[in-house]
Each structure stands twice: as structure tokens, then as C-alpha cells.
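Researcher: Can you fold this with LQNNLAPS in place?
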Amino acid sequence: MEGVDYLRDERSKAQFDVETMKVAWAGSPEAFLVCDRMAKLVANDPVFEKFSKPMLGRKELFKNTLRKTAHAWKLVNDLHLTEEEAKWLRHYIDEPSYTDLQWEMFVPALEGQGTEEQKKKWVPLAKTMQIIGTYAQTELGHGSNVQGLETTATFDRQSDEFVIHSPTLTSSKWWPGGLAKVTTHAIVYARLIIDGHFYGVHGFIVQLRSLEDHSPLPGITLGDIGMKFGHGTYNTMDNGVARFDRVRIPRDQMLMRVSQVTKEGKYMKSNVPRQLGYATMVSVRQTIVSDASKALSRAVCIATRYSAIRRQFGSRDGGPETQVLDYKTQQSRLFPLVASAFAFRFASDWLKLLYTDVKQRLEVNDFSTLPEVHACTAGFKSLTTAATAEGIEECRKLCGGHGYLISSGLPELFAFYVPACTYEGENVVMLLQVARFLVKTVSDLGNKQPVGTAAYLGRASLLVQKNCVVQTAEDWLNPIAILEAFEARAARMAVGCCQRLAEFKSPEEGFAELSSDLAEASLAHCQVIVVSTFIRRLQQDIPGRGVKQALEVLCNVYALFLLHKHQGDFLATGYLTPKQASLANDQLRTLYSKVRPNAIALVDSFNHTDHYLSSVLGRYDGNVYPKLYEAALKDPLNDSDIADGIHQYVQPILKQKLHSSKL
Ligand SMILES: CCCCCCCC/C=C\CCCCCCCCCC(=O)SCCNC(=O)CCNC(=O)[C@H](O)C(C)(C)COP(=O)(O)OP(=O)(O)OC[C@H]1O[C@@H](n2cnc3c(N)ncnc32)[C@H](O)[C@@H]1OP(=O)(O)O
Ligand SMILES: Cc1cc2nc3c(=O)[nH]c(=O)nc-3n(C[C@H](O)[C@H](O)[C@H](O)COP(=O)(O)OP(=O)(O)OC[C@H]3O[C@@H](n4cnc5c(N)ncnc54)[C@H](O)[C@@H]3O)c2cc1C
């Protein structure tokens, strides 16, 4: 039956205005309109159909993405889309493509690390796609350890050129998106050598392919690194390998904002810190945090809608069975993920502001907030991608057996998403960066009052002594009580690590030995910031019937869920008593009952189209079973009753004559 809304009753239970919540989720009325327009543009364009993707082979997958990307670029030009609109268009097309690297890394690297002159020359070429670039940092032998990269860029004073060379197999560039078959240029990260001296790793603009016939330029070997996890998701992308055999580039193609090499071969450091060479990674990590909330919102939307349709057990007298969404176990696994999607959304909005601020400061050579922004982007990247990857897998399990079908949309989403835990800074390596910041901050407390996200550590001496005052489950609804619990736990963990570090012969030895504890302290610190950002968001004016109240419930769910999950930390650091932890859990159960009537409306607020979700379980109308059946029938194995290979391989077995002694 087309046109029936199987989730209508659920929608009628909503205690808040969904349309206003959509705006709160999008960030502003303008942002909502852009997203909505781009989502519909993609959903209504047959070129962007994606149902057939799981059936395509590697070459077809890749070509299909090239076709979609070309169509998208045509739309960008024909419709005069802004950069913001074009970004959303790419997002809703929902297929990793070389343009992700072009816009998220190549252009930002040129803009952030190039001189004014370099920007003037290269940025317009990239922005009009006259050149297509990638970010070639990782090598076969090194990814996390950027200073360990082996590719060399040797200055040749005679010709005023750099010679880019891959001296070993492990120095082969390995992973860059779009490198294998598409990109014409790359920012290649290499060790600078002048007169036999090493001057650290720098970025160089290297042309890879002819702009005439697209063939690799002399001395450059390019290829694909092979199929990746999952089928139809990241295999649309040609992650590549590149080897350089003494390839020459002009001197002015070294990105020279941080340091310069003169014609005479003199290495000149400007007054900007060398970490600015890592600025592109800070920019992308910030984007990745925002993508986490989108990916998680997509998974929870599917699992919540399906959980309202799916019924198991509980039927009396032939009446309807229980919706699985009504089971407390289902709620306790699902609702914290719905709350996390909102928490990450608000955290990423805040991070964007922080990043915009640091970008403006860097332009006028103010580097004072860079360490804090680096710690926040690295830490948030780790926290949100790990929770989102786990959350998508949990949503698959929440959908029972059907969640394992490609048509549920969840396996492909997981396969697409999970590398976010590794790329752009492996998650544990990123937490250890936060740990460096924390250790410095705590060690400096006697001399310097911490500010910004670390300001609470300025009260560390108080926080390590004070105990939680909560006496009833109701008390756990007080944002001051919640925030203090998170701050006290994080401060105690950080201070505890620093005290133990002092017992080692050297800080390096202590840091290595205590790295697991330091990573946990870093996670606790990042959770303070995410929880406090959610609380601060609620202190702002939030219009719309019941919107603020619904968000308050989610904020409490997010915080108390984390408290429950990490209660070992809260108890071990001595801030909470077991009784107080148990009261928090009682409150959490009550909160789940408050989320329940709003569950479907909350996931409707993400405004995801059926095209974007690409899930029969998460359909807006809840018409799951007929569509699941229909999708199954479309499988190529259902083209005929007797499949290829049956006559050849199965019938001979069925027809064999065995002697009874062999049975
Ligand atoms: C279903 C399909 C849907 C499809 C949808 C499509 C739409 C998608 C849209 C957008 C997607 C965007 C994503 C695009 C794809 C991404 C592809 C991924 C690309 C990559 O992975 S590129 C490679 C990334 N590589 C890394 O991240 C490497 C990680 N390693 C490092 O960053 C560093 O090596 C290190 C930080 C670990 C160590 O640095 P190092 O200098 O060796 O050593 P330290 O001594 O630790 O640091 C010194 C000092 O510097 C500080 N510091 C380090 N990093 C930074 C920084 N970035 N900024 C500022 N400061 C930094 C550090 O804290 C130290 O400071 P201190 O001395 O303590 O004061
Ligand atoms: C889908 C995808 C796309 C990518 N795209 C690009 C791209 O476009 N351009 C590009 O340059 N790169 C790209 N990469 C590479 C990516 O950035 C690296 O894989 C990533 O930075 C991790 O580095 P690694 O592979 O060297 O991991 P490793 O560092 O080797 O990690 C292996 C293990 O060692 C641990 N480890 C490493 N160092 C430490 C330490 N100091 N202390 C404790 N534990 C440690 C890690 O936690 C991890 O468990 C991509 C990767 C993927 C998966």
C-alpha cells in the first residue's frame, strides 16, 4: 500500500515541534535551507541513484563515481552553487571520491601553507578544477610518524630545482585518495635536503600527470593500492601508490609559508611555528568531527524507525506483539546513541567556531591558541569517530538479522565510516597528543592559569579534594552536578598521571610506560568539553514548542550514559560513591522513558531523505516488509529459478550413484 505512513502514530506522540528541531539540528534557518535543498536535489536526480552500487565490480564502481562527480561539478557550475552548497551536494551524493581530497585537503594545504604568491597562482587553478590534487603524506613505511617520512626533496642549486625521490620501497607514497588514477597534482610531503643537511619534512607541489593526455609524467610510477574493507563504499575511491625517480620541480613549488629556501640554497625559518605545516590536518579533523554526527544520525535514524516497526513477543490473545523499541534494553542501547548524535553535532558547531577563530589568528601570526585547538581537534576526532563507528555497529545489531542485509544500509555505512578511526590521525595517537597538552597544562599550574577548555584544571587542587554532593536521582538532573563530576574525574586522572610521571627517570620513559592511562585521561578531558558544550548550548535561546526540553533530556542521557559506562573511573578516582553511581543509573532509566514518545520525531529532525539513508529498514514511511521483499527480489541471483552453475556443479552431486558402503 503506497502512501500509508506506518509511523504516523509514533509521530503523533511527539512532544516538541519537529520543524523547529530541524533548524536546531542544522544550526540555523539558513543552514537548514541549504541542506534541505541539496538533499532534495540529489535525491531527485537519477544520476545519483545508488541502489545498484553493491552489485558493481571494482572498475564499474570507480567509473560510476567518476560519472557522478562529473555530473555534480556540472550542477555546481550550471546552478552557480556556493562552496557551502557544493560541499553539501558532495555530502548527499554519499560516495567517497577524488573531490573529497581536492576540497578537504589539497585546497586547504595550498591556502594554509602557501605564500601569498603561491596561493595566487595555485588556488584559482584548483578551485576551478583545472588541476586536481591530493594530499600525499603517508608512505608504505610511515603514516602516524610524519617526521619519519623517507621521501626526499634535495635542492639543486644549479638548476634552482628540488629533486623529489623515493629512495626505498617503504618511502612509496601509499594511501592518498584519487592518486591512483585521477589526480594531476599532489602536495607531496618529503624531507628537505640542502647540501647534505636534513631540514625536516615539508610540502611540495608536484605535478603527477600530463594535463594533455593524463599519462603519468616521466619518473613517476602510479597505481592503486587494492580493494578495501567493505564493497561498494571506499572502493569507489582510487587510493594510490606513487614512486618518484628523481623528479624535478621548480624551487617555488615548495610550500613556503613556514620556511623558505632561497635561490642560493639558504634555509630560512619565518617566525611561524613548524607545526603550521600540520595545519591542514587540523582543518580536516574538524570536518571529520562534523561528519561523525552525520554518520551517527544516519545509523540511529534507521535503527529507531525500524525498532518502532519491528515487533517481537508479548502478544496476548492474538493482540499485537511488543514494539522492540519498548524494551528497556533496546532503549538503553539506542537512546544514548541518539543523544550522542546531538552531542557531537553541537560539539562540532563549537569546534568550527574555535577553528575559525584560530584561522583568523594564524593569518596575523598569532599562534597562542594553536596548542589548545590542536588538542581539541585531535581529541574530538578520536572521541567522535570511535563512538560513531561503535554506534553504527550497535545499530546494525539493534536491527537483528535484517541489519546484516546490505539493503538495511548499515553494513555499507559501517564499512565507509570505520576508517575514520585511522585516517587523519590514528585515534590512539591523537589521544596521546591530547595527553601531551594535558601534562604540560598540569605541570605548569604553579606558573600559569589555564584558560579555555582547560580552565577547569585551574581548579584541580579543589577538584581532587571535593566529593560529589548528589543525594537523590533527581539531583543528577542538575547540570552543575553533572559537569563537576566530569571535571573532577578528568582532573583527578590527569593529576594522577602527572604524579606518577614524576616517579620515572625521564618524562619520555614515564610517558611511554603510562601511555594507556594517559590516553584514558585524555578521553576523560575530551568528554568534559563535549558535555559542557551541550550544557552551554542549552543555556542559549532555543525556540519552538518543547524543543529545549527534549534537548535537555538528551543532554542528561548523554552525560549519565557516559557516567554509567565509565563508572569505574568515577569510582576509582573517589569522587563518587557506589550509591551515587547507582542513583545516576536510576535517573538514566527514567530519562529513557522521557525519550521514548519523542524517539521517531527526534530522528525525523535530522531531515534525512530516503535516498540519503538508502535503507529499507529506515524508510520514512516505515513500510519495511514489502520493501525488504522487493529489494531481495532485485538480487541478481533471483534473475532465474535455476542459477548459473547449478547444472554444472550441484546436479552431478545429486545424481551421483554411491554404493551403500560409502554412505
Ligand atoms: C557512504 C559514503 C559517504 C561518503 C561521504 C563523502 C563526503 C565526505 C566529506 C568529507 C570527508 C572529509 C575527509 C576526507 C577524507 C580524508 C582522507 C584522509 C586523509 C589522510 O589521512 S592524510 C594523512 C593524515 N596523517 C596524519 O594525520 C598523521 C598523524 N601524525 C601527526 O599528526 C604527527 O606526526 C604527530 C602529531 C603524531 C607527531 O608529530 P611530531 O612532530 O612528530 O611530534 P610531536 O613531538 O608529538 O609534536 C611536536 C609538537 O607539535 C605539536 N603538534 C603536533 N601536531 C600538531 C598540529 N596538527 N597542530 C599544532 N600542533 C601540533 C605537538 O603537540 C607537539 O607540541 P609540544 O612540543 O608538545 O608543545
Ligand atoms: C581510507 C583511508 C584513506 C586515507 N587517505 C589518505 C590520504 O589521502 N593521504 C594520506 O597521506 N594518507 C591517507 N591515509 C593514511 C592514514 O592517514 C594513515 O593510515 C593514518 O595516519 C595512520 O597511520 P599508519 O597507517 O601509519 O598507522 P600506524 O601508526 O602504523 O598504526 C598502527 C598501530 O600502531 C599504534 N601506534 C602508532 N604510533 C604509536 C605511538 N606513538 N604510541 C602508541 N601507539 C602507536 C596505533 O595506535 C595503531 O594501533 C588514508 C588511510 C585510510 C585508511
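Model: Folded with LQNNLAPS in place. The longest helix spans residues 328-363.
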